[in-house]
Amino acid sequence: AHHLKADNSSIYVRKRATETNVKTLPLNNSKVIMFATHGLISGKLFGLAEPALVLTPPKTGTPKDDGLLTASEIAQLSLNADWVILSACNTASADGTGGQGLSGLAKAFFYAGARALLVSHWKVDDKATIKLTTTLFDILSTTPGISKAKAHQQAMMQLANTTAFAHPAYWAPFVIVGE
What we know:
The protein is of the alpha/beta class. 30% of the residues lie in helices and 15% in strands. It has helices at residues 19-24, 71-75, 104-112, 126-142, 148-160, 168-171; strands at 32-36, 38-40, 52-54, 68-70, 83-87, 117-120, 174-177. The strands form two sheets. The protein has a four-stranded mixed β-sheet, with helices on both faces. Strand 5, helix 3 (104-112) and strand 6 (117-120) form a beta-alpha-beta unit. The chain is globular and about 45 Å long. 36% of the residues are buried.
């Protein structure tokens, strides 16, 4: 939030991070939308036929809010976002249909109106992901005119040059798509 200069009213965590809120908020007013949660590939959870983001489940699930924001539900959102950041595992990985390319999750955000995505190809480390995204936003805010892709490249290089996150498993899962 600090790096995006967002106020507390625009941060949805714990009890506020619900599927109902995502579906009812005026997200088309947001230029940057970030989900820091778990990403699920279709078939990884019994009965899950499509990829999803895990949100806070209600005490009693309903067809409209079961705590999983699926690709088909994402595609129905109305976005006008320059950038959607999916800080979660497997948000760009194959959807299990045998095809290549972006997962149904990433495609759904484009269909909903996102112009660029930061997505991951495999499981991510929480601490490395925080470091990567905050470094990315630091670079964007201090380097006028730099592209998202160039800032992402520089953030990855900074992580690669540290002792704690030098291995590519920490910084390589994320890619920018759509810029």
